[in-house]
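Protein 1 of 2
SEQ + STRUCT:
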Amino acid sequence: MKKRVNFLEYLETDVALKILMFLNNPADLIRTSAVSRFWRNFVIANGILKQLCLTKFPQLSKNSGIVELKDKEMDNLYVESGSGTELAILERDHKLYASLLKYLFNSKESPTEFMLSDISAPSTDHDLIESIYDTLTPVRLTHWSSKGHSDHNASETLLYKLNASISIVTEINIRPYEAFHRAKLGFCSAKSVRFRMGHQDSQGNFVCTYTSPEFPMNQFERIPQFKLPGPVLCIGGFLQIELLGMVHRAGDGLFYVGINYVYVKGILLQPTFNIVILEPSGEFLLYYQPEYQPRTNAVAKKA
């Protein structure tokens, strides 16, 4: 039988890596590692899937180590900086990043809607009946409203917690409150919106690790959909919504913004993945438990 020839063997490593990194589709790179044993070893030894993950998810650059949980036992694990052969660590990393890339692809093709937990709003018009908690369910009669502002350029922020410490977020939808004023209905929306994701530090302060572009808010759309430029890895599970500017002027002459419902689309990665934030650096340990599959949905809970 004629011996097969791998063209990678005839290329300098740097050249071969540059060629393979043009395959920015996760599925293509995973298929590449299945061509032959040589190709698989080359992909694993050079951490190609890890490099692609870092390109797609810059937030992973703060990962200080990987913990793989075996047989569902917390005390039976491998740590990147601990024991284990170099090959075993490379193969483990290959599986982990292949799994992350698979969920990245799924988040684009079939994102799941999941709910949030409320954390805080800097101002509320009526604390008991118009709180941020009222934005967690799609009930039209409930909503959150800001306090009145004399300046139409005033801004408000809402802070939520996702029901997973690590997830892939692709889209955020906001239903503005529809108010009756001067014999007609109008949306109490913001002029524009911006999203930040991150974690809370030991003092309870929000630490941002991702900031989206600013999106204009359509003043005549019931549920504006804000698709992020690309899937975002939310590490820490916190979402901050910045409502920039106000368009609704009430009978008291002040400007208000009101939100009826907020929900997120993407994929929750727990319990396959989990994270532990390391203070004060903000780096994190990434836990990987391949025996479990991520949840397909989540139930909102009050924080």
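Protein 2 of 2
SEQ + STRUCT:
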Amino acid sequence: MGDLLSKFSEPDSPAATATATTTTMSSPNSDQPSSETPESQTPIEKIPDPPTDPNAAQTQSEEKSNSVKDGDNKEEEGEEEECGFCLFMKGGGCKEIFTAWEKCVEEGEKNGEDIVGKCSQVTENLTKCMQQHSDYYAPLLEAEKAAEAEVANQLEEERERLKKEEESGDKGKEDSLGVSAPDEKKSLS
């Protein structure tokens, strides 16, 4: 009997098709014109047969709770594996290229390779794709530009700091060695 109900829940089964046609037709005893009622549109729910063994009900409920727990664990694992950034990247038009980039990075990390060198072509393809789909990826592209500008500023500040240290270091060396500046040599002569 359980099989009979499951046949009706499968949309492509002959039994489901026959049921669909009979529910829209009026009953032969009715003198009213055929019209659908809300009850005829309600899907048939599969209800399991009651167990004959009283212990079977307890076993079934334990199995259900275990399967729900297992399902929750799998769902949690899937959420842990897929970060928000990854979900965002895969939500746009660059899903396939991003997946290729992910694989390249994972392989590089696994093999201890230089990821920047190994994945440069895939990264370039991903960047181009993101620019082509800038309507979706605009927040990331803007953040990347801001980060690049910040790095450029930090590099420039570092260069200036090193240059000042060299200049102050050179003056300190000259003074400690007793070497005079070129202008002082001319005035001594």
